[in-house]
Design a protein that fits this description.
alpha/beta, 2 domains, elongated, 33% helix, five-stranded parallel β-sheet, 14 helices, binds cytidine-5'-triphosphate, eight-stranded mixed β-sheet
């Protein structure tokens, strides 16, 4: 979503201005053309040269720069912008934008752009909580601006509270989501499951599997970046939660079953993509107290967990995953038929660098008509996009 985009990054006079350097760098690395506009106050905190070096592009600090090639610069930048991001945004710039003031390059650009605008506030907690700032932010939200953050925590003024610039990941994730709003999944609701469920034995132990959740999280982010409203139902993982998705945390297969089948988290969904490694068996009895090592051997009885994909009903597209160590295509096709799926994504777990825990995956996508699409080894994010291409195709046929 970011590659090739024209992004105006507005930097204002907050102590968090140094964090904008990281944003400029990440956006540039992702292939965006980043035009930084700094307010005069911002240049007191960080120099234009920093942004010039990171983006490889001129940095605008003056409203009327007679050396500029652009005729009416604030209008030119505003017209070219796919998105304007102000990070950090002070109470002052927020007030000026809310009031429609255009007395510097940044406010002028915001007033003149037809593109979406993201504002990441950063200021002292009392300034943030002041009703006038809150009122200004409400006004901007109502006008379609996206406000990200602020976060709560230690503030440079020595106080603790709301006012920290949102995490860089949250700002970049929001940029991706806003840029993707008109993507091929716009208006669609996609439910994705991820991670390996944990089936308790006693209060301190569980049975699980090696799933990292990376495939499911990549699917959730890719669907978000193509305009979908995403619900991620996740078993425990160590991954950061995807920004701007609805996340529902579950522990066991039974909990995932309850969210999906009983509470009908998929009722309004256009597609359910089950990337989670759901345990097929769980301990038949969970000990209330910690199991002590009093015998040489310990035998445990396991019982089947409910089959979520096999029982969930609805008119949404159903996508399953199959982890196989032999007869990949035949086994996956049998699962597709048995569970009544539209697509199955099969991977050979014996292949190197592929499947559980890896950052890459080599999969075969099989559809209901028996069409087999064998993909090369790809980063999971790319696999996610290829799976979503198929989902889009199926949705378009409906
Ligand atoms: N799945 C599910 N509910 C379960 C178990 C699995 O919905 N209780 C889903 C998984 O999320 C995955 C697909 O079903 O999308 C995998 O099917 P499954 O038959 O469980 O695959 P395996 O566990 O690989 O089956 P087997 O061990 O029999 O090969």
């Amino acid at each position: 979503m970011i590659s090739g985009k024209n992004i105006v990054l507005g930097v204002t006079g907050s102590i968090a201005a140094y964090k904008a350097a990281e944003i400029a760098s990440q956006l540039t690395q992702a292939g965006a053309k980043v035009n930084v506009i700094m307010t005069k106050a911002a240049t007191e905190f960080i120099t234009p040269l920093t942004f010039r070096s990171l983006t490889g592009r001129p940095v605008v600090t003056e409203m009327f720069d007679i050396t500029s090639e652009m005729s009416v610069e604030h209008v030119a930048l505003a017209q070219a912008a796919d998105i304007v991001v102000i990070a950090p945004a002070t109470a002052n710039i927020i007030a000026k934008i809310a009031a429609g003031i255009a007395d510097d390059m940044l406010c002028g650009t915001v007033l003149a752009t037809k593109g979406p605008v993201i504002i990441a506030p950063a200021m002292n907690v009392n300034m943030y909580e002041n009703p006038v700032t809150q009122e200004n932010l409400s006004k901007l939200r109502a006008r379609g601006f996206t406000i990200v953050g602020p976060a709560s925590g230690w503030l440079a003024c020595g106080e603790t509270g709301m006012g920290r610039l949102a995490d860089i990941d949250e700002i970049i994730g929001t940029i991706r989501q806003v840029l993707g709003r008109k993507g091929d999944l716009a208006g669609k609701r996609i439910v994705v499951t991820a991670g390996g469920t944990q089936e308790p034995l006693d209060p301190v132990r569980h049975i699980s599997n090696r799933s990292s959740g990376k495939m499911g999280y990549a699917l959730a982010e890719a669907a978000r970046d193509r305009g979908a409203q995403v619900v991620l139902i996740t078993a425990p993982t160590t991954l950061p939660k995807p920004v701007r998705t609805e996340v529902i945390n579950v522990g066991t297969a039974q909990e995932m079953y309850e969210v999906i089948v009983i509470k009908k988290a998929v009722a309004q969904a256009d597609a359910l993509i089950m990337a989670a490694a759901v345990a097929d068996y769980r301990p038949a009895k969970v000990s209330e107290s910690k199991i002590k090592k009093v015998t040489d051997t310990l035998t445990m009885e396991l019982e089947r967990t409910p089959d979520i994909l096999g029982t969930v009903e609805g008119s949404f597209i159903k996508v399953g995953f199959a982890a196989e160590s032999e007869n990949l295509i035949a086994n996956a096709r049998a699962k597709l038929l048995q569970k009544g799926l539209d697509l199955i994504v099969a991977n050979d777990i014996t292949a190197p660098d592929s499947g559980m825990g890896a950052d890459t995956n080599q999969v075969v996508i099989i559809d209901r008509d028996g069409k087999v699409d064998e993909l090369p080894l790809l980063p999971k994010r790319e696999v996610a996009d290829r799976v979503l291409d198929k989902v889009v195709e199926l949705l378009n046929k409906r």
